[in-house]
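Fold this sequence, please.
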Amino acid sequence: MAEHPTQPEMLADLHESQQALLTFLDQVDDTTLYRRFIAEEWTLAENLVHVAEARQFFTGEVRKVLATPGASIGRGLDHPARLQNMRSTVMQRARSFPSS
């Protein structure tokens, strides 16, 4: 058995988790999506913005490594693009829904 997952195994896991998330989200309405169920915690919408932004970022990081093998990848919590995305319009809309 391999020490690390193979590329086909990783792709299968990504496809499976993506499909499971999309299937679940088909059942979610806007009220649920933007409701803050616990004060000071992220809404479902805020979590989804984070997931989408992370996927975009890491797609770029893969491109960087493919173009320049050995290039460093990653970012800190204070990365400007990350911070901007976390302040997105979706976040502002989420604040308009009351906590449960």
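The mean pLDDT is 83. The chain has five helices and no strands.
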